[in-house]
Amino acid sequence: MTIGNKLVYPIFLQCCDYTLDNFWKYIFEDLAYLKTPYGIYLQRDYICCNYKGKEFNYKIDISKSPKTLFNDIYKLFNKRFELLSEKDKLNRRDLFEHSDNLKNLELIKKKHKYESILQFVISMEKKWDLSLEQGKQLLSHILLGVILKIFKKNEIIYKKFKIISIRGIDFKKGKVIYSKNILKNPILSSSLEIHIDKKISDNWIKYISK
Questions:
Q1: Is the confidence at residue 88, as pLDDT, over 60?
Q2: Residue 4 domain-assigned?
């Protein structure tokens, strides 16, 4: 095999039918004539790369279909060697942005849920004249119930985006009545114990960070 303008692997020209990206069309056209991207070389029917962390040796098997060859080589060049066209760069950026957006959305949901619970506890403290210790226990009880999915979605009642009641928790002046005694287990209760010095709201950022 002599490097030059001699067509050595015509099957690579057929591989071009499996991409609409001109960048990759040119890559496979060059491979047909034994021309490789910088950092990749051809040796005895093998496509090779010796870059640390990106090493590969791929046997060129012309008995494979052009589609299979295209997919195999594209994955090696794109995923392993990280050879990217402009379209690939845009797609990767969009993918990262989408992933970040999903993470941010999930974080917002968690913060909103905690803030709603926190506001509910504070309002119940004021309405039913609960002590600080009762408020602390109530907050731990609700959080644990939500995390363990003991409280179903339809058991937490909202009105205008605020929690107004939770089924399984009732109140009398100075008292909290738990129908679901999830704090009975000391191991579970201590794992979500929130230490409060002055106000429950002081622990908002600390709890979210966990």
A1: yes
A2: no
